[in-house]
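Supplementary Methods, section 5.1.

A reviewer requested that the exact input to the structure prediction be made available. We therefore reproduce it here, unchanged from the version used in the analyses.
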Amino acid sequence: MRAFVPHTANFFGRDFNRRIVFPMAGILIVAITIVIAIVVLSARQQNSLEVEASTKLATTALQVKAREVARNLRDYAVWEDAYKNLHDKSNLEWAATDGNIGANIFEGLGYEMAFAVDANENTVYAVIEGVPQKVDALKLMPRGLRDLLHVAAIQTDPVTSLIKSGDNVYLVAASALLPPSIDRSTVNPRKLTMLAFAKRLDQSFLDRMGRDYLLSDLKISLHEAGGAEASIPLLTQDRVFLGAITWSPAKPGYQLLQFILPPLCLVLAVLAAFSALVVRNARRSTKELEDSAKTVEAYAQTLKESEVRFKDVAEASSDWIWETDHSLKLVYFSARFTDVTGLPASDVLGKTLGQFFSSDADSDGWKRLVEGSDEHVSFRDLRCCYRDAKGHIRISRLAGRPILGTTGEFLGFRGTATDITEEVEAQERASHLAHHDALTGLPNRVLFRERLNVALTSNAEQTARVSVICLDLDHFKEVNDTLGHGAGDLLLQQLSGRLRACVHQNDTVARLGGDEFAIIQIGLNQPLEAEELSRKLIDVVRAPFIIEGQDLHVGVSIGIAIANVDDADPERLLKSADIALYRAKQGGRATYRIFEAQMDAELQERKTLEYDLRQAVLKDELEIHYQPLIDLAQHGVAAVEALVRWRHPIRGLVSPAEFIPLAEETGLIVSMGEWILETACRQVMEWDGLRVAVNLSPVQFRNKELVETVRQVLVRTGLDPARLELEITESVLINDTSAALEILNGLKSLGVKIAMDDFGTGYSSLGYLNSFPFDKIKIDKSFIGDMNSKDKSGAIVKSVISLGQSLNMTTTAEGVETPEQAAFLAQEGCDQLQGYYFSRPVTAPELSAFIGRWASGKEAGEEAA
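The structure derived from this sequence is encoded cell-by-cell as follows.
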C-alpha cells in the first residue's frame, strides 16, 4: 500500500496532468479554435457573397442609368425642329431656348453638358450646366467622344459610353439628328449632325443611385480601387480604365458573429468550467473521472453537430434559415423568418415545402424536390413564391442541403431562403421601361415594331387586314411654347387615354416620340375600318383638353397605310403611313389620308426640289428683281419692291408660289431672307433717294434675332434706315400679339418703315392698325382687279384710302394693270401705285433703265411690258 500510494499520488499528480489534463486542455483549445475559425470563415464568406451581389446590383444600376440617358437623348434626336435648327442651319437661339436644348437639359433632365457636332467635327452648339457656350466638344472630351460619335452615326439607336474630361467621368450618349420624316437609307451617316448628352458621375449622381439601389457610401475614384471593400471599374468602349465606383457593402457575416459569438463564448466558458470540475472530481474518484469522460464526450458530440450546422449556414447565403424532416415538412425557422414574412413560425411549421412555397416557373428542380424523390442532393438558387402576412406574393431564392444521420439515412433538408422580390421587380420595371414610353405608359417605338412584325407574320395570308395609322398633333408646339413642356406632357397623357379608348383590345397604340403616335389596327374590312377609326380619332381629339384649368384645343392629322400580300415589309408600311400623314398636313390638317403610290413619287419630287433649292442657296443661283412704286404726287419713282426669283438650270424660272412655301417649311427662308435683305439694301444704294421694300416671311418674323439681323445689314451696307421698308402680312401678328409688338417696336427703333402688306384680306386688320406702328398700308391686288367707282371693291378701296389719310399713313395700291385703275386711284387720293401698268418685276439694270426713261418723261402714262 505504501508503494501504491505514491503511485496513486503520482497518477493523480504529475502523471495525471500529462496523461489527462494536458491532452484535454489541448483538445479543448483546438476545438475552440476550430469553432471560432469556422464561424469567422462563415462570416467572411457571407460578406464575400454580399459584395458579389452588391457588385452585380451596382453594375445593373449603372447600365440602367446609361439606358435612361439614351432614351432621353432619342426624344431630341428624332425631333424635327432639332434637325432643322441644328443640322439644316445653326439656329443657336432656338437651341438655347428653354424647352428646346437649353437650360431645361440641365435643370429638368440633369445633364451637365449637351453638344451638337456637325459632319466636319465642328461643335455647332454646346450647352454646359444650362448655359450655352462656345466650346470644342472634341477638345473638351479628347479621349473617347470622337470614337463614340463615329459609332453612333451608323447606329439607329443612341450609343452610350463612359468618357473622362479633366478630373470628371461622364456618362455620354450620342445619336444622329435624324427625324422620322427622313429615310435613313437615303442619308450618308457621316454627313449627319450628331447630338450628345453628358451626365457627370459626381457625388450627387452616386447618392441618387445609392438610394435607388440600396448601396451605401458610393464614391468615385480615378485610381485603382485596391483598398476598397467593393468596387466596379469604369471602362470606355475600348476597355480603357477611367476610374472606379466604390462603396461600403453590408456585412451580414459580422452581424452573424455578433449574434453567435456571445452565446458561443458562454457555452465554451461553461464547458471549460465544467471540464475543470471534471478534472478536479477525477482526482477524487476514478468513477467520477469515467462519468466526467462520458459527459465530455456528449459535449463533444454536441459541438460536432453545432459545427456541421454552422458549416451549412456558411455555404448558403441566407436571409432566414429553415429545416425540414424526411417528408419535407418544415420543422424549424430562424427568428429572421418572422421579420421578413411577418408570419409567426407556428403558422407554417408542419406544412410541407410544397404547401408553403410554390414554383414561379416550371422547374424540374422544384418538381424533384417537392415530389420527394430519392435524389436527396444539395441545391442552390431554386426560385419560388410564397404569400406574406399581408397576402402579397413574395419571391424567394432557396438553397439547401440534405441532413444525414450517423448511418447515412436521409433526415430532411436544412438551408436558407433569400427574399429577392425587390430585385425581380426592379428587373421587371427595367424591362417595362425598355419597351414603353415613360410619360404615357404606351408601347414605344421598339415594342411597336415588334408587334407590327408579329401582326404581319401572323396574318401572312391575310396581310390586307393590317393597317398602320400614324398621328401627329396640330399646333402642339404652340402649347409647349405658351404653357410650357409640363402642360404639353399633361396633354400627351390625356391624349393617350383617349386613343386607347378608341381602339380594340387587339390593336396597339404606341408613342413614337414627341407628339407622334401610331396605331396597329387589325380589321376584316380594310381600309373602311381604318377610315372609320380615323374619323373617330379626329372627333375625339377635337374635344377640348382641360390643362391647368384652361381649355386647350388641338387637332390631329392622320396617315393610313394598308398592308398587302405582295409587300408586307414593316419599315415600308410605316414609311408609307408617314407619307400619308405628310399629305394630310398639306391638306389643311385635322384630316386623314390613305397612302397611294403617287404620294411617294410626289414626296420624292418635293425632296428633289428641296435639294435643288438648298443647292441654289449655296451656289448663289437666286436672283432679285425689282418693281417700281410710282408716287402720284411727285409723279416719280418713289421706291422699289425687292422680289426673289429662282432660275433653275433645268426647270427654268420657278414660281415663288412653289419655292417660297418650301423654304418656309424647311427653315431656309431665314438665311434666304437675310441674303435678300442685304442684296436689296446694297442695290438701292445705287439709286439716289429711292427706298426699297422687302417682304418678311412669318417664319423670319418668329426669329427673335430679326431686329439684330436688320441692324447688322444696315451697318454692313451703310443704307439710311429711313430708305428701308419692311412689309409684313397680318398672319405674322395672329399667334403672339405681344411678341409681334415687341419686334415691330424694335424695328421701328432702328428707323426703318413698316408696311402692312395685303391689307383687307384678314379678319382684324383694323385692330392691328390701331395697335401696331405701321407707316404704310398696301391695298391687296384682289380689290384692284375689277374695281370701279360703283362696285364693292371700289367702295372698299375708297374706304382704305380714306382710312390711311385719317391715320396719316401712306397708301399703296398693288396690281395696277390698266390706265382706268390708275386714274380711279389717283382721283381717290391714293399715294403710290404699283403694277404691270408701269413695270413688271425686272432685274436691277433693267430697272435702272426704266428709272432713267421715266425721269426723262418717255414712259409717262405708258404701260411697260
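Residues 170 and 200 are 4 Å apart (CA to CA). These observations are discussed further in the main text.
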